[in-house]
Specification:
The chain has about 220 residues and is of the alpha+beta class. The protein has helices spanning about 1-10, 10-25, 40-45, 55-70, 115-120, 145-160, 205-220, and strands spanning about 30, 35-40, 75-80, 85-90, 105, 160, 170-180, 185-195. The strands form two sheets. The chain has a six-stranded antiparallel β-sheet with strand order 5-4-3-8-7-6, with helices on both faces. The protein has a two-stranded antiparallel sheet with strand order 1-2. A hairpin with a 2-residue loop joins strand 3 and strand 4. The two termini are about 30 Å apart.
Amino acid sequence: MTQIAGKVGIAKGAVHKHLRTLIDHGMIVQDPTTSLYRLGPKIWLMGQKAPDGQMLSEIALPLMQAVRDDLGLAVVLSVPTPKSAFVLATLRSNQPIDIGVRPGSELQLHSSAQGKVFLAFGPADLWNQLQTPLEAVTPRTTTDVETLRRDIDRIRQAGYAVAPEESLLGINALAAPIFSATGAMVGSIGLIGSIQHLSADATPHQLKVLLDLTEAISHRI
């Protein structure tokens, strides 16, 4: 922050206020260990100026393509922001009726499979960002905080999350985390489809393909 204040020529208090606003909107992120700042997912999506081969999406997309072709489901790459799961990249399904999520969408932490993955494996302060009472996005959304905590505990044990009809009726998502070389959670892959093609109980093949994918991305990172 001191370096930024010196470069820009404004007070550190003003810099701090601007940085917090940018973090809240996913424009920048702060390393919790070093306190250093770097560009966030929204800046990347707007600018597309990352060095070749360095961005998570560049690593993930070729592997996501193979999974989409295998399962026929939409495949979504999300990264955490302080208040949501931010959709960084998507591959649309190859079903006759297309179901997917647009890049740039923000999924709520408590009502999406990707958001629940971030609550389970991400920093503890994400819980502080939940707005209570929890919004009932659909009649099937979990709105009780204690019920959500128990769900998150099960996700930590299982290594993946589902959110059948919690964000949109008739639609389910199956998601698992991506980890960096240091073991920090850096993102999530979600499979999106109708309840007909992706039920609340994922098939063994769907689950294996997803976990193999997130493990492969984590290794490449």
